[in-house]
TrEMBL record:
This is Helix-turn-helix domain. It comes from Paenibacillus polymyxa. The lineage of its organism: Bacteria, Bacillati, Bacillota, Bacilli, Bacillales. SMART domains: HTH_XRE. GO terms for molecular function: DNA binding. InterPro entries: Cro/C1-type_HTH, Lambda_DNA-bd_dom_sf.
Length: 123
């Protein structure tokens, strides 16, 4: 059912109760200048959304990001229909970062030496 980018885009629009016309009024693609400063917004056309939803054209990255922001879903879901697997490891990564913030240099060196010794003993 939601096997293509277009079908997922259509699903998101319909789930939110929007017509194509309503969606293109609100959906804007940010435009940046050569210094990467926001310089304005580019409107999306009805034809762009129609071609996307009917799988006639592949969206560019700017449209994918705009859809992701607009519908509050990940770009991975738009592109692949599933979330990025790395998100599951986020809390573990946060715990590891907290360890580095809370650890003194000496404690860190001790922990590093313990880890190295574990690897040496296992080989």
């Amino acid at each position: 059912m939601l096997e293509t980018i277009g079908s997922r885009a259509r699903f998101l629009r319909i789930r939110k109760g929007l017509t194509v016309e309503t969606m293109i009024e609100d959906l804007k693609i940010p435009v940046f200048d050569e210094n990467n400063n926001l310089s304005g917004y580019k409107k999306v056309t009805k034809g762009t959304i129609g071609n996307l939803e009917n799988d006639r054209n592949k969206p560019n990255i700017d449209l994918i990001i705009a859809l992701s922001d607009y519908f509050e879903v990940s770009t991975d879901w738009i592109l692949k229909g599933r979330e990025y697997e790395g998100v599951k490891m986020r809390s573990q990564t946060e715990e590891e970062l907290q360890f580095f913030y809370d650890t003194t240099k000496e404690e860190f060196i001790q922990k590093l030496e313990e880890t190295i010794n574990k690897f040496k003993n296992n080989n």
